[in-house]
């Protein structure tokens, strides 16, 4: 089930998106959004009679993390190698502020503090309930669903700072969307799910979640052993090789099989 957050020009609402994805991760003109009575993470799945054509609404970030976005660094060996880094012995994680979250179609702003802004297409896990010290074998019990993320990074600031907060924490540096898919289980596929990033239509990243160094249950177990995870928290699971710079005016699309596509344009701040 695809759970979206959308607006028709009024207050944001939640809804269920219907229709089949084509080979490009897009829905047809017959797709509709059936409105829900509130955030299903808190009030359950209560469908209303109200519905809209998908093309008549604006999709927003499908979740607004109440506390945090947890990023996972160097979780694909080829990506670690391309930046001259070793694969960590245990998950390497960092925090992105919830103010960095934007939705599909929203601009990513190129701040004046950097001259080397990079895309990082990623599978994002949305947490569904309060949890702490989750065993890996119980990790699926706390997952609400999956969405697509772009861990935008000021690479020069990442290199110069002793930690990654500034490089990854600017407003607009965490596009999420287009919706949360509650029925997808990447762990169920031996070959994982395919993740591709397109820069102005050209493929720049092409990987699979099967190539993660640490799988999703291991990430949830590790992160929750350190901090309590809350409903709506997001874990970005790392990016495959192929990261690179973006310029003002560029369009970046991250597509994941079974999830659709997340598109954003780079604008000057």
Word description of this protein:
- By secondary structure, the chain is mostly beta strands.
- The chain has two domains: 2-59; 69-268, Alpha-Beta Complex (Fumarylacetoacetate hydrolase, domain 2), CATH 3.90.850.
- Helices cover 11% and strands 38% of the residues.
- It contains five helices and 20 strands.
- The strands form three sheets. Strands 1, 2, 3, 4, 5, 6, 7, 8, 11, 12, 14 and 17 form a twelve-stranded mixed beta sheet that branches.
- A hairpin with a 2-residue loop joins strand 15 (194-199) and strand 16.
- It is globular, with a radius of gyration of 17 Å.
- 46% of the residues are buried.
- The mean pLDDT is 96.
Layout: helices, strands, pairs:
Blueprint: E1 2-7, E2 13-17, E3 32-36, H1 40-43, E4 47-53, E5 58-60, E6 69-73, H2 77-82, E7 92-96, E8 101-102, E9 107-110, E10 117-119, E11 121-127, E12 143-150, E13 153-154, H3 155-160, H4 165-169, E14 174-181, E15 194-199, E16 202-208, H5 216-224, E17 234-236, E18 244-245, E19 251-256, E20 260-268
Parallel strand pairs: 6-17, 8-14, 9-20
Antiparallel strand pairs: 1-2, 1-5, 1-14, 2-3, 3-4, 6-7, 10-13, 10-18, 11-12, 11-17, 12-14, 15-16, 15-19, 19-20
């Amino acid at each position: 089930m695809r759970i979206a957050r959308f607006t028709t020009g009024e207050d944001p609402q939640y809804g269920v998106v219907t229709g089949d994805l084509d080979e490009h991760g897009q829905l047809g003109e017959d797709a509709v959004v059936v409105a829900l009575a509130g955030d299903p993470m808190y009030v359950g799945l209560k469908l209303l009679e109200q519905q809209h054509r998908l093309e008549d609404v604006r999709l927003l970030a499908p979740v607004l993390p109440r506390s945090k976005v947890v990023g996972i660094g160097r979780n694909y060996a080829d990506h670690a190698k391309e930046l001259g880094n070793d694969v960590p012995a245990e998950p390497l994680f960092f925090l992105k502020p919830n103010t960095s979250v934007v939705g599909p179609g929203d601009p990513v702003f190129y701040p004046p503090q950097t001259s080397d802004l990079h895309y990082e297409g990623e599978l994002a896990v949305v947490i569904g309930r309060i949890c702490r010290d989750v065993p890996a074998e119980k990790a699926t019990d706390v997952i609400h669903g999956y969405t697509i993320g772009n861990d935008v990074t000021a690479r020069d600031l990442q290199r110069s700072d002793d930690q990654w907060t500034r490089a990854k924490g600017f407003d607009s540096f965490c596009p999420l969307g287009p919706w949360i898919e509650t029925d997808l289980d990447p762990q169920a596929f031996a070959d994982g799910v395919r993740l591709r990033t397109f820069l102005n239509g050209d493929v720049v990243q092409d990987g699979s979640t099967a190539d993660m160094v640490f799988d999703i249950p291991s990430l949830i177990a590790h992160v929750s052993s350190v901090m309590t995870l809350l409903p709506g928290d997001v874990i970005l699971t790392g990016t495959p090789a192929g990261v690179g710079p973006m310029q003002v005016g560029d369009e970046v699309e991250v597509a994941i099989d079974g999830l659709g596509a997340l598109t954003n344009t780079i604008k000057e701040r």
